[in-house]
Amino acid sequence: MAIFSALIIQIIPLLLLIGVGYVAGRRLDVQMHSLSMLSIYLLVPFVIAISLANIDLKLEYVAIPFVLYVICSTLCVVAVKLGKLTLDKSHHPLMALLGGLSNTGYFGIPIITALLGPAAIGIYMLFNMGLAVTEVTTAYYLANRANLSIKDSIKRVLRLPPLYGVGAGITLNLLNIEIPDIVHKYWQHATGAYIIIGMMLIGVGLSKLNGLKLNWRFTGLCFAHKYLIWPLTFLGLILLDKTLLHALDHNTHIMLLLIGICPLPANAVAYATQLKLPAEEVAATILLSTIFALLYVPAVISLYYFLIPT
Predict the structure, then answer these.
(1) Which residue range(s) make up the domain with 110?
(2) Distance (Å, rounded) from C-alpha 268 to C-alpha 202?
(3) Cystine design at 272: which of 68, 128, 277, 303 (Cβ 3.0–4.6 Å)?
């Protein structure tokens, strides 16, 4: 119960930020495009690069981002296939944006800090590189592929700054370049801004809706994929390690579990806006997912700690 309560306390402010975004969109005429461009082109690359530069790249951790990239890319393809079976063509790119990603940054960082302490953030961010690369390659490519040629889709992927943030961070790390204290200071500020703007994007998207006109088939498919297929996949990965591989520790299992149960990705709103897809519909679905996660995520983690103690 203590873990459940502690996590609820971490999640409630994230929901309040959605409300702040809604008010900003309604009353202050804040636009999704400006916020999304600020996030994608400035904050995300900087946060990723410095996070990677700060990490102690131990051998046992290095393989995990590659494994997660394969898993998340596969989940992305599965989501698109499911969308083609049940949804109209206009929603296929949205399934690419939502199906292979998870809100492990804006939503996950406060939770992992509460569970494992600030020292775990670096390793957690390393693992999330698998999702970050999926986001700017597989998901972004498939979302564009519905409207663009393969050549044009690849060009758009290669223009995304987060991809270069990954490369810059790894380069700084491998060259053992010391990051100045002033950069660390602004990295902390940027991480906070990254979380705040990311959650506000959902609210700003909702503020542009003329009521909550949800496509329930689309939303239902997103929920089934995110809260059934995703958790089962990551629990399977954890059980595989516990029973056969024995390569990872308990804290790593907790990080993998959280990645598997976080709600739908807030970044999808930014990308949908950039690609001129129905971002408001995405925002409404993500809002419901985040509200559901308020109880779902603490419940699953509490149950895991109860069944599999440290």
Answers:
(1) 2-307
(2) 9
(3) 277
> 53-100, pLDDT tens digit by residue?
877 777 778 889 899 999 999 999 999 999 999 988 888 889 998 999
Read off the pLDDT of residues 140-175 as tens digits, 9 standing for 90 and up: 888 887 566 677 767 767 777 877 888 898 899 889
Q: Among residues 283, 268, 163, which one has the least CA distance to residue 212?
A: 283
Structure tokens at 91: 């929603």
Q: pLDDT > 90: what percent of the chain? A: 34
Region at 32 (left for phi over 0; alpha for psi -120 to 50; beta for the rest):
alpha
Give the CA dihedral 54, 59, 65, 71, nearest 10 degrees.
-170
Measured distance CA(16)–CA(152) in Å, rounded: 39
Give the CA-trace dihedral at 49, 50, 51, 54, to 10 degrees. Answer: 130
**What is the 3-state secondary structure of 206-263?**
HHCCCCCCCCHHHHHHHHHHHHHHHHHHHHHHHHHHHHHHCCCCHHHHHHHHHHHHCC
Q: What is the CATH number of the domain that holds 291?
A: 1.20.1530.20
DSSP track, 137-173: IIIHHHHHHTTS-HHHHHHHHHT-HHHHHHHHHHHHH
Residues 175-184: contacts with CB under 8 Å, at least 24 apart? 177/53, 179/50, 179/53, 179/54, 183/50, 184/50, 184/54
pLDDT of residue 114: 86
Q: How many structural domains does the chain have?
A: 1
Provide the token pair at 198.
């990311």
